[in-house]
Design goal:
By secondary structure, this protein is α/β, with parallel strands linked by helices. The chain has ten helices and nine strands. It has two domains: 172 residues, HUPs (Rossmann fold); 96 residues, Pantoate--beta-alanine Ligase, Chain: A,domain 2. Strand 8 and strand 9 form a beta hairpin. The longest helix is centred in the middle third of the chain and has 16 residues. The N and C termini lie far apart (46 Å). It binds adenosine monophosphate. Adenosine monophosphate binds next to helix 2 and strand 5.
């Protein structure tokens, strides 16, 4: 069923103007930042925002500053008309889709850098990525001024870093973390899955299989992270000659490795299937 189309907003001034009455009458404003090519994972965030907020804003913006020079910025899928339909079906009120010139036109000299949490995992392989994410998300927070904002557990390091930014900078909003939505066979939904060939799509499942193998051995009582990491890597190796950026058990709060696992553990991985980089993670409580 087609929903009511959301209002499409292209400029910061119009976005601020649109939010004014809601801020004035105490409405709960929800923001769902996305890079578009929306799928059921994004939709779960939009649904949650719709159920908790009076007004829902989705941003659709492929942020250039979070892509490295050799990454997929140029070929990242862009499909605003389809995204507007999807947002309409999820009851989104406003879609903020600015051009690069609107977001960065004046030239920018400010970057937000969260230190320790960005040093490992994706931070090692995507230098500057989290500075780009934090800066654009801070800009979106200042433009929309949401009360609640929704992010996916799929990007576990991103949400950990953003929570820290919000705490450190006393940003007056609440981050809501939503569970990872998966395909029927378990592959985490991602806009980048569209890049996979039929064969690669089958192979891609090895990342989730590896994380599950890690979780299974933890449940069986193995708590030494070097052993768990080796087991996870073996699952990927057995599936094919894929480059593993990282595949490891870390402390879910600090994202630091720990030899003897305890508390809430994040099993996190990033692998490359051909030119496509996929990430996924599982949280495991170690008792
Ligand atoms: P992206 O468009 O990839 O920047 O993602 C926008 C938001 O959707 C981020 O908060 C992601 O963590 C979230 N997201 C992406 N994929 C999924 C998924 N499979 N399940 C839940 N959330 C997701």
């Amino acid at each position: 069923m087609p929903g009511k189309q959301p209002v499409l907003i292209r400029t910061i001034a119009e976005m601020r103007q649109a939010m004014k009455p809601y801020k004035a009458n105490g409405s709960r404003v929800g923001l769902v930042p996305t890079m578009g090519a929306l799928h059921a994972g994004h939709a779960s965030l939009l649904k949650r925002a719709r159920s908790e907020c009076n007004v829902v804003v989705a941003s659709v913006y492929v942020n250039p500053t979070q892509f490295g020079p050799n990454e997929d910025f140029n070929k990242y899928p862009r499909q605003l008309p389809l995204d507007l339909d999807r947002c309409g079906r999820e009851g989104v009120d406003y879609v903020f889709a600015p051009a690069d010139a609107e977001m960065y036109g004046g030239g920018t000299q400010t970057l937000i850098h969260v230190a320790k949490l960005t040093e490992r995992l994706c931070g090692t392989f995507r230098p500057g990525h989290f500075d780009g994410v934090c800066t654009v998300v801070a800009k979106l927070f200042n433009i929309v001024q949401p009360d609640l904002t929704y992010f996916g557990q799929k990007d576990a390091q991103q949400v950990t870093v953003l929570k820290r930014m919000v705490a450190d900078l006393n940003v007056p909003l609440q981050i809501v973390v939503c569970p990872t939505i998966r395909e029927g066979d378990g592959l985490a939904m991602s806009s980048r899955n569209a890049f996979l060939s039929v064969e690669q799509r089958k192979q891609a499942l090895c990342l989730y299989n590896a994380l599950q193998a890690g979780r299974n051995v933890i449940v069986q009582g193995i708590k030494t992270s070097s052993r768990i990491n080796a087991i996870m890597r073996d699952v990927v190796l057995a599936a094919g000659p894929f480059a593993t950026d990282y595949l490891e058990a870390v402390d879910a709060q600090t994202l630091q490795p720990m030899e003897e696992l305890a508390g809430t553990v994040l099993l996190a991985g990033a692998i490359r299937i051909g030119a496509t980089r996929l990430i996924d993670n599982l949280l495991v409580d170690v008792t």
